[in-house]
Amino acid sequence: MSLSSPTGALTTRELIARYDAHAPRYTSYPTAAQFTPAVGAADWGAWLGAAPLDRAASLYLHIPFCKRLCWYCGCNTRAMNRVGVMSSYVDLLLKEADLVLERIGRPVRVGSIHLGGGTPNMLPPEELERLFAGLAARFDLGDCFEIAAELDPEVLTQGWVEAAGRIGLSRASLGVQDLSPKVQAAVNRPESFETIRWAAEALRGQGVTSLNLDLMYGLPLQGAEHVVTTVAQIAVLRPERIALFGYAHVPWMKPHQKLIKEADLPGPEERFTQSQAAARYLVQKGWQAIGLDHFALPHDSMAAAVRAGRLHRNFQGYTTDEAPVLIGLGASSISRTPQGFVQNHAQERDWRADVSAGTLPVARGVALNPRDAFVGEIIERLMCDFTVDVAEIARMRGRDLAEVAAVWPRLQRFQLDGLIEVNGTTVTVTDLGRPFVRAVCAAFDPGAADIEKRHARVV
C-alpha cells in the first residue's frame, strides 16, 4: 500500500521512516515517565484534603493477578491462583480506601468504578462481592453510573458473571488480541472464538450494556490477514466498542517480552498496513473511528462524546469520564487531582507493606503547574479531536501564546508533508496524519526528547 501526501512528495514508506520515532501514548501530561519520587505520600495526602469533590470522583482499582503471563503484556501483573493471597489483597484495597478517606475528611460521591489489571476476574466471586460491599460502606455510590472491568474470557466463569451482575457491572472489556492459533502460541495466549462468544453473551445476560473487545496488531508472526480475520470474527458479536492497540515491544522495561523473538515481529510498514486494514473494515461495518485506536458504534456513549467534543484521555485510554478527581487503589494505580498525579508502588510487596503500616503507598508523582495544564489540554484535544485552537485554550486558561512559541517551527515539517493543516492558531491533523498524531503531540511536549527511549514507536 502506498499513500502519498497531497503534494505527492512522500510515500507511506517515507512517512514512516521520517516519523516513526519513540513517543508517549499521552494518556496523561506530564507522562508517567516524568513522574519522580520527589512527589510522595505527603503530597498526595495534602492534595486529597484539598480535592474538589463537589462533583463525583472516579475510582480505579488495580488487580495484579493473572492465570498466566501473556508475553506481550505491558501491565503490572503476575501469575497467581492462591485464594488466600487474593483475599488479603482485597483486605488491603479496602484499608487503602480508609487511608484515602481519612486524608479527605469528608464524604466522597463516586460516579464510576473501573477494575483493571491484570485480570480482575481472577478474584473469586465472593471476594468480588466483598470488595464492592466494602466500597459501598465507605463511599457514596448512589450516583455511580458505570462499573467497568477488564476481563480475560479464558478465566471467566458463570459464577463470576452472576456476581458481576449483582454488583451492577455495566461495562466489560474482553481481551482478545488475535484469534490465529499461530499468533496466540507466539504470545502464550490460547483462546477460542467460542469462549469469547460465550463471555459476551453471558455478560450481556447479566446486565452489561457496553461491551468492548481489545485487539492488537504488530504481534509476532501476525500478518494483515490475521488481523482482518480476527476483526471479521468479533464483528459478528457487535461489541459497542473495539480497541485496536499496537503491540509495544519494550523488553528493556518488561523482561518477559524477551520471550518473543524479535525476528518474528512485523516491521513498521507491515504494522501500518495491519492497523489501516482493520480500521477500514470496522468503519465499513458501521463502527466510528475514535481517536487513534478506538472504534464505537454510533449509539455508544463514546461516539456521542466525540460528537459533543467531550472525549477525554486517561490511563485507561480514551474515556467519557469527566471527573476532576481519580482515586487509584492497589499496586501501581495512578491517581489524579487538579494538583497533579501520583502512582502507587508497582511492586505488590512494597504496596502491601505501606498500606499495612498505615501509610499512603505512593512511590512517585508529578505536581501540575499552570503551564503543564495548558500544554496537557492542547495534547488531549489533538489526541481526542485531531484539532485544537491553541489561542482559545490559552485564553480560557489565562496563558500567553509565547509559552508555546517554540512549537510553530517544529510543526512546519508536519505541515509540509501534509500531516497537519495550520490556520492561524488552529492545528488540525489530516487523515494522512492521524496515524502519526503522537508525533505531532510530541512537538508540543518540551520533555519528549528526554524520555524518548522509554516509549514505544509511533507506528
UniProtKB/TrEMBL annotation:
One of its GO terms (biological process) is protoporphyrinogen IX biosynthetic process. Its EC number is 1.3.98.3. One of its GO terms (cellular component) is cytoplasm. Its main location: cytoplasm. Pfam families: HemN_C, Radical_SAM. GO terms for molecular function: 4 iron, 4 sulfur cluster binding; coproporphyrinogen dehydrogenase activity; coproporphyrinogen oxidase activity; metal ion binding. Belongs to the anaerobic coproporphyrinogen-III oxidase family. NCBIfam families: hemN. This is Coproporphyrinogen-III oxidase.
